[in-house]
Amino acid sequence: MAEISLDYIKNITAFNQIPILTLDERWYHLITEKNKTDEIRFWEKKVNDLLKKQGQTNNDIKEVKKIKAQLIQDVVENMEDDDDKTMKKMSQNQKLIQEAKDMIAELEDESMDIPRELAQANHQLILETIKVCYNRMNSNKEDVEVLEKWINATRLKLKKNLLIKQDKEDVNTQIYGYMHDILGAEMMEELDKLNEQ
């Protein structure tokens, strides 16, 4: 079999429609713990880590946006008050709002990189999965060919042995028949008893 490369499979139109493998239950039937290679384990972990990171980043963005909204609401509610304590709190809130904006921008930048990294890791996992599956199928094919030869040879031997068996049974029937005709029933009965002992 020719070596399967990422460049080769990327040129196949259907390649981009393949889902994240570790989210597909069928993948776990295809790649069991028993037949996972080190490469598959590495890329599986990488894909799962990136999925977790993507989920965590999205949650963090929501949380920071919620906090920012609360801070803005607090600033709006206290705009009328101009005592020192309120002014100090508003100044602090404005600083926190800016930090929240910066954090949201940073998290959103990070969240935009994750899908690309996730796709790359999934592509590698797809490649390694294809290699393992084709190696197993090719190995099984070789075994099937060996077994097919053995079955055909055994089938031929079985046919020969069945013919030999049938021939020996026919000869025995013929011998017994002639003996029965010559010696008679009573004599054959006594000889059969003796022969069975």
List keywords for this structure.
2 domains, 197 residues, rod-shaped, 83% helix, mainly alpha
Q: Count structural domains.
A: 2
Question: Main beta sheet: strand number and arrangement?
Answer: none
Tell me the overall shape: rod-shaped
Beta content comes to: under 5%
Oligomer: single chain
Could you give the count of β-strands?
0
Average pLDDT: 90
How many helices does DSSP assign?
Answer: 5
- SSE string, helices as H and strands as E: HHHHH
Give Rg in angstroms: 40 Å
- Stretches where pLDDT is under 50 for at least 5 consecutive residues are none
Question: What is the terminal separation in angstroms?
Answer: 65 Å
**Helix/strand-derived class?**
mainly alpha
Measured as a percent range, the helix fraction is over 70%
Description:
There is one protein chain. The protein contains 5 helices and no strands. The chain is mainly alpha-helical. It has 2 domains: 6-153; 157-196. Helix 3 (38-77) packs antiparallel against helix 4 (84-183) and helix 4 crosses helix 5. The radius of gyration is 40 Å and the shape is rod-shaped.
